[in-house]
Amino acid sequence: MRQVSRLWLLVVLVALLSGCGYNAIQQKDEAVKAGWSEVLNQYKRRADLIPNLVKTVQGYAQQERQVLTDVTNARARVGQIQVNADDAASLAQFQQAQGELSSALNRLLVVTENYPNLKSDQSFRDLQAQLEGTENRITVARGRYIQTVQDYNTYIRQFPQVITAKLTGAKEKPNFTVENEAAISEAPAVDFGTPPPPAAPQAPPPPSAPTPDN
Predict the structure, then answer these.
(1) Gap between the Cα atoms of 90 and 81, Å rounded
(2) Looking at the whole model, is its pTM more than 0.70?
(3) Which residues fall within 8 angstroms of residue 109, CB to CB, at 6 or more apart?
(4) 132 is in which domain, residue-wise?
């Protein structure tokens, strides 16, 4: 008799949890995890390109040691971070390190404009194309992750899911911070064109008219 009662109680609990969004919470949580894995995958893809990029640039521009060192050090700092996407402080540290690496890469690519032989090197052009493609993939992966986390956080705050979330310990997840959320669908602008011509010098002002003698 007791086993039958327990079985019915289990059936009732399963029905209540299903009706209160338990299954949907699990599905959305898995979607967030999958989105985060894709973000890490694309960032790793970029990190794997950097050693070959630095080596290629170094072959033509050995004197640019500071810029090359900055990129190498920024990549090393990224590799040392053990990020926990569920911890806001850890995610912010990860985002800051990736931002520093992006800045260092941009400085390196600006420097390459001064070396025509490097720009015409086929291996460098291939790496440049791969880097641009990876930046686009990072932007897309980040954008999808941001939207997935927003969907999850919004869902667990709604009734009756909020009750199920509290009972099961489901909490809001931290997210990437962006100054302009509309920009998450756009890749960082990297201009490899020729620099603009210098501004024309301003004409000197006309001489003042002589004062009449008294």
Answers:
(1) 8
(2) yes
(3) 128, 190, 192
(4) 53-175
